């Protein structure tokens, strides 16, 4: 996955992860997805690497046949 920005917005994360804004905020508040507020304290910023780290932390369970 190639992302052109170094930081992403909640909306960017929604698109990349296929999740709702509520789910993204929940991941942030649970400490599962690193994010910080911008200098004005109004907008969440999510580092590109935080998205990649979160995706790499997910466990994939394959069904047994």
From TrEMBL:
Gene Ontology molecular function, alphabetical: DNA binding
Domain Helix-turn-helix: 8-57
Matches recorded under InterPro entries: HTH_17, SinI_DNA-bd
NCBIfam families the UniProt entry points to: excise
Identification of the protein by name: DNA binding domain, excisionase family
Source organism per UniProt: Megamonas hypermegale
